[in-house]
Amino acid sequence: MFTVVRGNPTPEELAAALAVVQARSAAASAVPAPPRQLDVWADKTRDTPRGALPRPGPVAWRSSHWPR
After folding, report:
1. SS3 54
2. Could you tell me where the DSSP H helices lie in the chain?
3. In the list 5, 27, 49, 63, which could disulfide-bond 54, CB 3.0-4.6 Å?
4. What's the CA gap between 23 and 40, in Å, rounded?
5. Which is more confidently placed, 50 or 56?
């Protein structure tokens, strides 16, 4: 898994280096990822209108939006 490219480390030096790598890896995996927030357009609660839909007519466009 690991290869020494240059030099001739003692077993103690190699063990110390691997302990540091292992500790950093464990610390990085222990931090939970922040929860993803959904985009407003992907929010499923927006799929249903609150109240009645506007009735067709020449001024229906005024009430065609869904207020939040």
Report:
1. coil
2. 11-30
3. 63
4. 39
5. 56
Secondary structure of residue 38 in the 3-state scheme = coil
Cα distance between the two ends of the chain: 55
- The residue to which tokens 């500790």 are assigned: 23
pLDDT in tens, 12-23: 999 999 999 999
Q: How confident is the model at residue 28 (pLDDT cuts 50, 70, 90)?
A: confident
The model's pTM: 0.42
| C-alpha to C-alpha distance for 52 and 31, rounded to whole angstroms | 46
Q: How far is the C-alpha of 56 from the C-alpha of 59, rounded, in Å? A: 8
